[in-house]
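sorry for the late reply, my laptop died twice this morning and i had to redo everyting from scratch. anyway the thing you sent over, i finally got around to it. pasting the sequence first so we're on the same page, its 325 residues, then the predicted structure underneath. double check i copied it right bc i was rushing
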Amino acid sequence: MSSQVPSIPLKNAPLEFNALALKRTFSQVFPKYKQPFIKKIKYELQGNTSTSTDMSDPVLRLDVPLGTSWSNNSCAYDAVCVILYNIWRENPILTSNSWRTLQSELIDLIITSFESHNSFPGTSQRFSLEEIRDFVRRRLARISTDFTFGHYTSVHQIIERFFKTPNAVTISDLMCPNGHVVNIHRSLTASCEIIVFAQPGTSLQHCVDNFTHSSASKCLTCDTCLLRKTSFVQTPPVIIFDFQGCVPSLSPILWITCGEYGRVCYNLRGVIYYNDQHFTSRFVTGAGMIWFHDGILTGNSLIYEGQDIESITTESAVMAFFTLA
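ok and here's the structure:
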């Protein structure tokens, strides 16, 4: 573990973990686990393997997800990379084609990077996931000082950069709760990252179905705070919900209402958590299996947690990933 600690002084470095945190045992951090379920990755193919060995065949799927080992304040990148890579890995061709419709240069970059990591049986591996993660980090560092290599950053900044699109995903209009005319133009959001302001005890489905919150602007007629109502105008292949404050409850399936498309189904694929200045994640496979990842404690392995997605914890969650069903 000590070999992974950055060489910069701890007292001056914006580290995710201080020295005492790094010394904590796994059982102290996660008391419900007696010991980490970490072992060498083994591959299990599902499908008609007797008639096809083509790894691009969507019928063939690798069940055990892969992670990245923490290094130099990488936890935000680890959390994002683990979820995106393992989603992509289940069906690389279909996922690559759908993600490229976002017309995001950084998404295209990460797809190309994932393609350089051949983790399938019988194939050579050109780059490790850690090397791919650090390549992306260095690319982001050239874009903005927010991503200076070795410094702390957040998943919000990473996702904001990755999932910008040239086309609007949502539109929002200001409206007076008393019905007065509001002469303010609608605003557009060209991003797959959707900010959610939830009320205590509500579900994400309720938030999406009632996508309205109070704004700071006031009605010129009655001086009442205006409401901002948001609606979807496209259904991107990935939607990332960014929780601001209260975290809603999650379910395996989410329905998005989008104009002429009607109700469109999305599946929960990952959750990112933030606690003690450190990001961790849970990945949900297409078959509904839940896997936990922490780059410091589990390294490039993940812990299998079962298939009860309804009970997946949202405590300290900051972001949830959904993909088109």
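The longest strand covers residues 262-275.
thats about all i looked at so far, will dig more tmrw
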